[in-house]
């Protein structure tokens, strides 16, 4: 089988559409079908199912092959980057993922600094939940991700800690407290924003023997801010995510600290491409060596 056939299979598997894959790869649909058929014939197994109602589906073997094919494509990209480096060229693609607040906070300065010296590097960006990004790295859909730690079975480089903070509705009694503890939040109406921090919050309340009364769960910070503004409860959200959303609400720290760690995750640090190594080095320079803190 050829690299083109492998690329074609990966694109069909990721889009679950022969039509979309043909469009993305600038191929005809019959050519895409022929490439998939050639791979299945060579491997003597069915990798994709064609269902009139459900569309294209991966078989169990197809899911396993997809991971291996992604590894092959990343290896080819690594070879191309190494050859380009010998020739003194800065070419290649970095396939990177991050959860929304990390994407907004970390990636722009990283990309800007890299582009100053390597203007021809291409960034293929993917955004999803913190758990999505870990899964994408593990399955080789992306080469590198900014995630919430820990990330089992992946190589990680810690970047910084991220505290959870409280958003108080107007005229809430806790505004009179100089210091708010988790004990003060016992049975209070709480609003959470899904994003991977839930485990740390639950553990913190359990450690203080306090009842966490989650009245609402949102999927974005803007919704949480508006719900707090309407007096529906106390918001608890990561400082990083909140820093991306202007508001006039009372923001308070909580004791003991509820914190999570943010870091870079890759399948294998020793096998990382030159482009990924460059991204890691740049992130370390920006967010570790210079000790830049998340804005409060």
List keywords for this structure.
two-stranded antiparallel ribbon; 296 residues; alpha/beta; 10 helices; D-Maltodextrin-Binding Protein, domain 2; single chain
Cα radius of gyration in angstroms:
23 Å
Q: Count of helices? A: 10
- Rough shape? elongated
Q: How large a portion of the residues is in β-strands, by DSSP E? A: 15-25%
Structural class per helix/strand content?
Answer: alpha/beta
Helix content: 40-55%
Gap from first CA to last CA: 53 Å
Give me the CATH architecture of the domain at 161-260, please: 3-Layer(aba) Sandwich
**Major β-sheet annotation:** 9 strands, mixed
Report the order of strands and helices: HHHEEHEHEHEEEEHEHEHEEEH
Average pLDDT works out at 90
Strand tally: 13
Outline the low-pLDDT stretches. Answer: none
């Amino acid at each position: 089988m050829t690299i083109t056939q492998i690329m074609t299979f990966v694109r069909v598997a990721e889009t679950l559409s022969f039509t979309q894959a043909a469009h993305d790869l600038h191929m005809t649909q019959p050519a895409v079908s022929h490439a998939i058929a050639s791979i299945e014939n060579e491997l003597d197994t069915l990798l994709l199912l064609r269902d009139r109602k459900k569309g294209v589906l991966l078989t169990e073997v197809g899911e396993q092959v997809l991971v291996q094919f992604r590894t092959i494509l990343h290896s080819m990209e690594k070879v191309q980057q190494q050859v380009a480096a010998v020739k003194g060229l800065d070419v290649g693609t970095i396939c990177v993922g991050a959860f929304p607040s990390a994407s907004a906070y970390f990636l722009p300065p990283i990309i800007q600094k890299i582009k100053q010296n390597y203007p021809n590097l291409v960034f293929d960006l993917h955004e999803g939940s913190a758990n999505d990004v870990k899964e994408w790295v593990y399955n080789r859909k992306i080469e590198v991700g900014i995630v919430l730690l820990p990330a089992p079975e992946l190589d990680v480089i810690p970047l910084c800690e991220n505290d959870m903070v409280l958003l108080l509705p107007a005229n809430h009694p806790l505004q009179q407290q100089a210091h708010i503890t988790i004990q003060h939040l016992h049975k209070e109406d709480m609003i959470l924003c899904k994003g991977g921090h839930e485990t740390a919050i639950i553990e913190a309340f359990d450690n203080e023997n306090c009842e966490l009364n989650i009245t609402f769960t949102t999927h974005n910070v803007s919704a949480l801010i508006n719900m707090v503004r309407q007096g529906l409860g106390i918001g608890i959200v990561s400082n990083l995510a909140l820093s991306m959303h202007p508001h006039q609400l009372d923001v308070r720290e909580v004791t003991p600290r509820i914190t999570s760690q943010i870091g870079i995750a890759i399948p294998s640090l020793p096998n990382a491409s030159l482009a990924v190594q460059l991204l890691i080095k740049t992130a370390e320079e920006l967010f570790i060596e210079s000790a830049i803190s998340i804005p409060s």
